[in-house]
Amino acid sequence: MKILIMVKRVTDPNVTIRPNMDxxxxxxxxxxxxxxxxxxxxxxxxxxxKEAGIAxxxxxxxxxxxxxxxxxxxxxxxxxxxxxxxxxxxTLEPLxxxxxxAKVIEEEEIDLVLLGKQSSDKDNNQTGQMLAAIxxxxxxxxxxxxxxxNEKATVTREVDTGLQTIELTLPAIVTCDLRLNTPRFASxxxxxxxxxKPLVIKxxxxxxxxxxxxxxxxxxxxxxxxxxxxxxGSVDELLEKLKTTEGVL
Length: 249
Fold this sequence. Notes:
Elements: E1 2-6, E2 9-11, E3 33-35, H1 37-51, E4 57-64, H2 69-78, E5 82-87, H3 94-108, E6 112-116, H4 127-135, E7 138-149, E8 152-159, E9 162-169, E10 172-176, H5 188-194, E11 199-203, H6 235-244
Parallel strand pairs: 1-4, 1-6, 4-5, 5-11, 6-10, 7-10
Antiparallel strand pairs: 2-3, 7-8, 8-9
Helix pairs in contact: 2-5, 3-4
């Protein structure tokens, strides 16, 4: 069984992001970048399936600029076998990313696609669902547990009312939630080995797809700063403030 994992280069979750001067986008100058945390979880799950003898090969796909090689190399250091970078400097919408991934799935004859349930930079949460629709494959989103046996995937997913367990016939798409696993740290020897693993870079024009944007971002603004609260000395003082100043009681 061949597994494709999709990884995205995003701003480090611990970095404070600000709009640029004209508010047309976020300012990424000298900003630390990292792999999307949900993509790390997808990578870990794919590697565990290979270590269990269920998967024969784990392929990493990223779509972005040449610096996205760093995130692919991270996945390779964790244990993936080879990487594919579709290189572009454009910011692609989820639908276009799904179209490109579908092409790679066809070329590589993939049996299972694992990807993060969403990206931490824009929270789109759309690519997995769109990819499943394009391929007409079964899908399970927000997976917190995954079990593969007899060409079927049993997935426990988190929903508003609790946990839901469904069964998919492979090939399928699974998007990974936080509680699926804890990603491993790549060891120094594996980081060195990852530099020698195959990584193919393909220009986006090679795929011949219509990737015309369907929406336009108008502006980016920082969220409003919350006002500091009042520190009161007693319950009586709180009640008095609620009655007189706030008019709540």
